[in-house]
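Reagents: none. Just compute today. Sulfite exporter TauE/SafE family protein.
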Amino acid sequence: MLISALILGLLGSLHCVGMCGPIAFMLPVNRSNSLKKVSQIAIYHFGRLLAYSIIGLVFGLLGKSFYLFGIQQQLSIVIGIIMIVVILLPHKTIGKYNLSKPLYKFISKIKSSLGKALKKKTADTFLTIGFLNGFLPCGLVYMAVFGAIATGSLLEGSIYMVLFGLGTIPLMTTAIYLGKFLNSTIKQRIQKAIPVFVVVIGFLFILRGLGLGIPYISPAPIVETASSAMECH
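Predicted 3D structure written out:
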């Protein structure tokens, strides 16, 4: 399941360029020194990954609480259904229930801090920009968060989000160097592939929750495995 986070990041990075591209384009990188430019971009990405890892820890903890109550499998099924429903529902319907609305004050503070950071060129600026960038609302990040919850673990939740972030790095870095470089045809194809893959991930989470005994895809519940072993003895 962790691999799905990396693929989601890779496929969804075009969306990330669209959402966070303006921030990436405005990074105050050193244009005259290639080595400094590379290090500054690397620090920016590290800041994003750090933010994603914290988000993964928080939501992994939430998933762990469900696991302790013995409902991790049901949670995996519910999350899979939510991911599929979100993709299939019309955008207008989802807009009515925008989860970002209660966080507008928090988001406005992040944007304000980002604006100030983008005007500076100190070493810590790129870490700050990347870190704040990681907390900006994004539909794909929400999908990754669902995956972090389904892991039912602090560590795996954090790793899931970091892998998602790593998947976005290649295209985001290319965007910083080349700006608007993809033609509309390629963009449309990738945009069409994103919802398809999210639906596939949703089905994988549902299969995982069903516990059909399929290795790696739908492993049998630990309780059932343990009880079967006891019966054999």
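Confidence is low (pLDDT under 50) at residues 223-232.
Action item: order primers for follow-up constructs.
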